[in-house]
């Protein structure tokens, strides 16, 4: 029976989630927890949400804990979300980088089901087509805390519903081909630019190397101010000098970090190291 979580279980779960991945749940988000975790009850043969949460708090329940974190951190996304960051990439950021170097590295810090890193790869390919010889090599790293999402990203197959969200017919024709079970798959020339790695944003970023651009969009909204500040500080550490950080449309560094200069564009805002 999927009854609402009691206050004690919900409080313990909030603490667990913040400690494990930095996500802060509000006081009255029991409905969200119920909707995300209810499907796991049948999978793990657990009779109630309270029992599921209590089992999750047990450190020995590694498979269950991983599934719960997957469920709570998986968010819907779409291709070329908000449009303007990808236009800025094509018209401002890539031309600037092309003047300095022939090889670039970009980080998509919350790749979800793969739309953002693959959109970045498509934008780079479009730039290269219009600017032959510029940026000879590009590497895009997509990271996520969800292993399930990362497997989906690596597979690179999408159904018609997913493809209809933000993807033009021209880009669908140019960058996709027929895949398995009636789905469309990302073409190899796009996939070659992108690699996917598991990363909890609370952990160290040192092994990722250095980047010329970081997309960390619609991520900070889930964290406390203290955790936001730590994440931005670590991103600053892996960005090359004078390179850019891109946040979500509703996010800013105001009150979080003074390590970046705000660059106003039309439309949109970039943050420069």
Summed up, the helix count is: 11
On the 0 to 100 scale, the average pLDDT is 92
From the alpha carbons, calculate the radius of gyration and give it in angstroms. 20 Å
Shape type:
globular
What are the secondary-structure elements, in order, as H or E?
HHHHHEHEHEHHEEHEEHEEE
Q: Please state the structural category.
A: alpha/beta
Query: How many E-type strands?
Result: 10
Main β-sheet description = 7 strands, mixed
Please mark out the parts with pLDDT under 50 across 5 or more consecutive residues, or reply none: none
- What portion of residues is helical? 40-55%
Distance between the termini: 51 Å
What proportion strand? 15-25%
Strand order of the largest sheet: 6-2-1-7-8-10-9
Q: Can you offer a commentary on this structure?
A:
With 273 residues, this protein is of the alpha/beta class. It contains eleven helices and ten strands. The chain has helices spanning 7-21, 30-43, 49-56, 62-73, 84-100, 115-130, 147-155, 160-163, 169-175, 188-191, 225-238, and strands at residues 103-108, 137-144, 157-158, 176-178, 184-186, 194-198, 211-216, 239-247, 261-264, 269-272. The strands form two sheets. The protein has a seven-stranded mixed sheet with strand order 6-2-1-7-8-10-9. Strands 3-5-4 form a three-stranded antiparallel sheet. Helix 1 (7-21) runs parallel beside helix 3 (49-56) and helix 5 packs across helix 6. The model has no long low-confidence stretch (mean pLDDT 92).
């Amino acid at each position: 029976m999927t009854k609402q979580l009691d206050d004690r279980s919900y409080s313990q779960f909030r603490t667990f989630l913040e400690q494990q991945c930095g996500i802060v749940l509000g006081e009255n988000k029991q409905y969200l927890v119920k909707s995300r975790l209810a499907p796991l009850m049948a999978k793990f043969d657990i009779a109630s949400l309270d029992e599921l949460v209590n089992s999750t708090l047990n450190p020995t329940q590694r498979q269950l804990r991983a599934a719960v974190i997957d469920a709570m951190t998986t968010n819907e996304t779409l291709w070329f979300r908000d449009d303007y960051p990808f236009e800025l990439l094509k018209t401002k950021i890539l031309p600037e980088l092309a003047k300095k170097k022939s090889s670039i590295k970009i980080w998509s810090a919350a790749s979800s089901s793969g739309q953002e890193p693959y959109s970045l790869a498509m934008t780079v390919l479009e730039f290269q087509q219009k600017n032959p010889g510029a940026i000879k090599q590009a590497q895009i790293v997509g990271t996520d805390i969800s292993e399930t999402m990362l497997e989906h990203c690596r597979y690179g197959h999408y159904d018609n519903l997913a493809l209809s969200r933000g993807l033009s017919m021209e880009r669908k024709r140019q960058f996709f081909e027929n895949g398995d079970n009636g789905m469309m798959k990302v073409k190899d020339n796009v996939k070659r630019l992108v690699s996917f790695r598991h990363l909890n944003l609370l952990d160290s970023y040192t092994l990722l190397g250095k980047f010329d651009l970081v997309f960390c969009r619609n991520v900070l909204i889930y964290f406390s101010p203290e955790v936001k500040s730590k994440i931005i500080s670590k991103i600053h550490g892996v960005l090359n000098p004078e390179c850019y950080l891109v946040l979500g449309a509703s996010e800013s560094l105001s009150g979080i970090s003074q390590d970046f200069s705000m660059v106003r564009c039309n439309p949109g805002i970039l943050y420069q190291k």
